[in-house]
Each structure stands twice: as structure tokens, then as C-alpha cells.
Task: structure prediction
Amino acid sequence: MIWLTPVSNRCHLGDPTAASVCVETEMRKFLGGVLVGIILVPVGFLFVLLAGFWPSAATSQPPAWESRLALRALQASVERAVPSQSNPITASEENLLAGMKTYKNGCAGCHGDAGGPSHWGTTSFYPRVPQFAQQPPRLTAPQMFWIVKHGVRYTGMAAWDGLISDDEIWKVVTFLSQLEHLPTGVAQEFHKKH
Result:
């Protein structure tokens, strides 16, 4: 009469058929739980997004996990998109001064300058705008060129393609890549108050 005993009780009676059924039942429960997790977690996340529970104010402080995830996704995307190329602009004083002038006129409003960080770049953008005078970029020149030219989706970083020439973009990028090692004349000009 072992077949009348519930499966959960038969699992321990040494019946090979029952053991097989028991393993199968437990595997189904496990896979069912995995499937529910795979479906419910994204559905729950979508609900939070689409129902308007996700904060959308640019003035709110992003959680650390969101900042890390977004930064890592951006880095991976840029690394993948950037063609293998080198900076065609030499870091001469003339090129650095030209790049600095373009930076001060077009970039410093958001990214700050030697006088300090941009107030609205550090408080009114989401995600916050990198402040290069305080923390120079850690990207390669080709990566910076690609970002300046094409912009960054879902941020305030506009695409400058068509607004300034590739030569001007390269000069800004050259200036940014040399921020920690500017020649004396360029550094003095960068720190001048206008």
C-alpha cells in the first residue's frame, strides 16, 4: 500500500519510484520559483517606473547603486563605440590655449572652471555633471572626443557635432587631457578671472 502514502512521506521510505517523483517535484518547485523571480522582479520594476513612483526630479540625489550602474554602463558603451584612433592634435601651448578658450566658452557653465565648480552643474542636473577642474576626466582622448561629438543620452551632455568643428573638439579634449600638467602660461590663463 505504499502507493497510497503521500509523496512527501514516501521520499524517505527507500522507494526508488517515490524518490524519483520526489526529486522531480522538488525540481519543479525550484524552477517555478526561479521563473516567478525572473518574471515578477522585472514586472515589479516596470510597475514602479510606469506608475510614476521612480523619482524624476533633476534635483534629487541619485542613489549610489544607480550612479555606479549608470557610470559602468556609460563606460562600457563608450569603450565599445569609440573607434581605434589617436588624438591628431599635439599638446602645444597654442592648441591648449585654443582648447581652453572653447572649454571656457562652451563647457565651463556646466563642468566648472578653475574658479570653482558650476553651481547648477552640481545641483540641477541628474546625473550630476563632472567638474573637470576639480577632478579631471579619466577617459582617453578618443573617448572624450566621442562623448563631446555624440553627447550622452539621458543626461544634459549635448552632442556638439555640427556646432563646433572636429578640430575644435580635439583641442578641447587635448586641453582636458592635460589639465593636471598644463604648461605655466596656459595654467595661468586658465586661472585668470574674467
Confidence is low (pLDDT under 50) at residues 1-5. The two ends are 96 Å apart (CA to CA).
